[in-house]
């Protein structure tokens, strides 16, 4: 056995405890000091309830759209040779590299009614920045790499022989795609989509810069938490934070359980 | 990454559609940052850049990254070594726990630290009794930066070390090398580019973190404003050109990150190609 188990294990556990577990459990301890009525009141306040709706709907729509857009990006990058392809491939990581507040700032300027793109939508009477579509747009932006980088390696691996085999057996292009390629990519797409969804639920910087933040209409839950903090209502903030935290941890563990189960089955074949 | 030449109208349409999406969602937002920053001319941009509050924000942002990145490199190496070299109970749990910062909303994370170090907790009361300012000051900013950047290095190193296999390390052990020698002479040369890549990603996140820092910073001009917070602050004050100037500094860092990422992936791949690979071992 290689040396080093004691120090590396000890350090890792200590660090995870100090940096991750202690702060998160502090929140839960703090919340447990509230009465049930206070807690329930804070998390079911009508303004907070509508923030759940805005956040979940925004994350849902953006995840569906980014699945399509991200799949298209991954598809053309892996399948075709065209000028600017390498640049396109590199750009896919921009949303990871660009700070979210900067992304929100520039997207809101771009899609504002006077902006380069927003003016075209304004002419059609469609409002994107400072309205709900802006939230979806910001979430799409931050989610792009999750989809592209999970789907791309699978598409890369699948190239060639599967499609040839399918077409030799008489499948047309659509059948090859829907019966052969898509089922093989689906697990990676679902994994990427789940990460994008979880990320979108918690996204703050990009969203608040573009959302307009109108109570009951375009306030996301992260912002509600921030609003309660600025009112110095720490208890209500903590209650909302605990809901967000528990929901995202549940999603994370369901995703990891599903991934490890699926991958085990996949490897058994 | 070689594809075929598109040979039908449909394929060209797909490519065209993809390129349009990329231009609208990625290229134009990036171009707009620099256009707006230069909106009042180069001289105005330079004077915005050299304002006290800008220089202070850059300094604080760099400080947070300079502390958080090395600490998380150390943590990433420790955790990856532990996960890939041994079988033990709770290994899956450890791997799941390190992913928590990915899934946690940054605002929630910042709030947890606010409670931990604030007057609401025993620790916070002790800190304030001893006149140690943590919340609304740089120590809290560094702490939340450590939290949000903690998974990156470990997540990149674990699959990399697994793919290398354990054969070389076991051979070094039988030849009498100690743990430190095995790490520095055998493991590290194989993973160095991946490690740097992890450092680059951690750095990008450390520099760009907004939500978590916004909660613990108290947003005090010239004291606790990092660059992303300054972007928001200037924008709220309707100093649009100045806001975009601060944004352009961050966008420039993002572009450098992208270039470094490409370079490191290429170097790591070259390393792996040169490496004579046995059947990939599993740790």
3D structure, described in words:
Chain A has 269 residues and is mainly alpha-helical. Chain A has helices at residues 5-32, 36-43, 46-79, 85-91, 94-97, 100-111, 118-123, 132-158, 161-168, 173-202, 205-211, 221-230, 234-268. In chain A, helix 2 packs across helix 13, helix 8 crosses helix 10 (173-202) and helix 8 (132-158) crosses helix 11. Chain B has 283 residues and is mainly alpha-helical. Chain B folds into 2 domains: 1-37; 41-274, MetI-like fold (Orthogonal Bundle), CATH 1.10.3720.10. Chain B is globular. At the A-B interface, helix 1, helix 3, helix 4, helix 5 and helix 6 of A face helix 1, helix 3, helix 4, helix 5 and helix 6 of B.
Query: How many DSSP E strands of chain B?
Result: 0
Secondary-structure element series of chain A: HHHHHHHHHHHHH
Greatest interface and its residue counts?
Answer: A-B, 90 and 95 residues
Tally of DSSP β-strands of chain A: 0
Distance between the termini of chain A: 31 Å
Q: Quickly count the helices of chain B.
A: 14
Radius of gyration of chain A, in angstroms, nearest whole number:
22 Å
Oligomeric nature of the chains: heterodimer
CATH names the topology of chain A as MetI-like fold
What is the CATH first-level class name of the largest domain in chain B? Answer: Mainly Alpha
Overall tally of domains of chain A: 1
Strand content of chain A: under 5%
CATH homolog superfamily of the largest domain in chain B: MetI-like
């Amino acid at each position: 056995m290689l040396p080093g188990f004691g120090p590396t294990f000890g350090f890792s556990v200590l660090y995870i405890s100090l940096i991750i577990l202690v702060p998160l459990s502090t929140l839960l301890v703090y919340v447990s000091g509230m009465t049930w009525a206070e807690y329930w009141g804070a998390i079911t306040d009508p303004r907070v309830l509508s923030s759940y709706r805005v956040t979940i709907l925004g994350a849902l729509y953006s995840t569906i759209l980014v699945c399509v857009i991200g799949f298209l990006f991954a598809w053309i990058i892996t399948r075709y040779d065209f000028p600017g392809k390498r640049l396109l491939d590199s750009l896919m990581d921009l949303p990871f590299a660009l700070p979210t507040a900067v992304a929100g700032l520039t997207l809101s300027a771009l899609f504002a009614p006077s902006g380069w793109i927003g003016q075209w939508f304004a002419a059609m009477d469609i409002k994107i920045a400072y309205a709900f579509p802006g939230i979806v747009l910001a979430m799409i932006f931050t989610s792009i790499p999750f989809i592209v980088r999970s789907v791309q390696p699978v598409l890369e691996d699948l190239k060639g022989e599967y499609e040839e085999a399918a077409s030799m057996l008489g499948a047309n292009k659509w059948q090859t795609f829907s019966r052969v390629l898509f089922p093989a990519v689906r697990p990676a797409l679902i994994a990427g989509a789940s990460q994008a969804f979880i990320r979108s639920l918690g996204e703050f910087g990009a969203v608040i810069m573009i959302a307009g933040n109108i109570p009951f209409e375009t306030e996301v839950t992260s912002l509600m938490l921030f609003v309660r903090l600025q009112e110095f209502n720490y208890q209500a903030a903590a209650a909302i934070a605990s809901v967000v935290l528990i929901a995202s941890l549940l999603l994370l563990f369901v995703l990891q359980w599903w991934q490890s189960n699926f991958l085990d089955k996949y490897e058994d074949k | 990454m070689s594809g075929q030449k598109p040979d039908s109208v449909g394929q060209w349409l797909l490519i065209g559609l993809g390129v349009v999406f990329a231009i609208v969602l990625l290229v134009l937002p990036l171009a707009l940052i620099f256009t707006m920053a230069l909106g009042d001319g180069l001289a105005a941009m330079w004077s915005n850049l050299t304002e006290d509050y800008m220089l202070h924000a850059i300094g604080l942002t760099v400080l947070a990254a300079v502390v958080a990145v090395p600490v998380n490199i150390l943590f990433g190496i420790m955790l990856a070594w532990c996960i890939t070299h041994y079988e033990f109970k709770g290994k899956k749990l450890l791997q799941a726990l390190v992913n928590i910062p990915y899934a946690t909303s940054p605002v929630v994370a910042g709030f947890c630290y606010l409670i931990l170090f604030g007057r609401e907790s025993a620790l916070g009361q002790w800190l304030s009794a001893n006149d140690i300012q943590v919340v609304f000051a740089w120590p809290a900013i560094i702490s939340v930066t450590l939290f949000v950047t903690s998974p990156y290095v470990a997540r990149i190193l674990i699959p990399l070390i697994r793919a290398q296999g354990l054969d070389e390390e076991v051979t070094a052990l039988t030849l009498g090398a100690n743990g430190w020698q095995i790490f520095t002479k055998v493991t590290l040369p194989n993973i160095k580019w991946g490690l740097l890549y992890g450092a680059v990603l951690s750095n990008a996140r450390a520099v760009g973190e907004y939500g978590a820092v916004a909660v613990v910073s108290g947003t005090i001009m010239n004291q606790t404003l990092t660059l992303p917070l300054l972007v928001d602050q200037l924008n709220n004050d309707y100093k649009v050109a100045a806001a975009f100037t601060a944004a352009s500094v961050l966008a420039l860092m993002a572009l450098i990150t992208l270039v470094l990422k490409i370079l490191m992936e290429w170097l790591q791949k070259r390393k792996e190609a040169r490496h004579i690979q046995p059947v990939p071992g599993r740790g």
